[in-house]
Amino acid sequence: MKDYKQSRSFKRQRLIRVFVTLLLGWGVPQLASAETHEINMKDRRFSTETMRIKVGETVKWVNDDTELHQVISGRTLSDKDLGQPMNSGVMLWNAAYAYTFTKSGAYPYMCVIHRALDEHQGARSMVGEIIVTDGAESPR
């Protein structure tokens, strides 16, 4: 009788493990299907200034330059939300920074290093914007 109870318990535990494994496995393809987009930084420019993506997708900025760069949220240096939600810190050459967008909206960003220099010199600045849609609208 004891072997029968142990056998039933073992089968129940095994069934629960299989169920949990399948349940967790279904979440993995959803995560894996989220796309990662890349923006390169070189010659004081972002390779793409405006990008449209869907909620849950990631943008990765790569410093392909020999200059230092930074990706930081904001339109101007005096923005009240400067650095929220994105702030890569100073990026050396070949460094990368990625951010996953979890809410729809417009996310302006800049390289604060060159924005400050360019404002002083009156030159074109490194600025960009990520437009995030909820998926109901098609990104353009």
Question: How is this structure best summarized?
Answer:
With 140 residues, this protein is of the alpha/beta class. It is 30% helix and 29% strand. About 11% of the residues have low confidence.
Unreliable segments of 5+ consecutive residues: 18-32
Provide the CATH architecture of the largest domain.
Sandwich
Which structural class is indicated by helix and strand composition? alpha/beta
Number of individual domains: 2
Overall geometry: elongated
| Discrete helix count | 2
CATH class bucket of the largest domain:
Mainly Beta
* Biggest pleated-sheet summary: 4 strands, mixed
Q: What proportion of the residues is helical, as a percent range? A: 25-40%
CATH topology of the largest domain: Immunoglobulin-like
Please provide the count of β strands: 8
Mean pLDDT metric: 77
Question: What is Rg?
Answer: 23 Å
In CATH terms, the superfamily of the largest domain is Cupredoxins -  blue copper proteins
Element order: H for helix, E for strand: HEEEEEEEHE
- How do the strands of the widest beta sheet line up side by side? 2-1-4-6
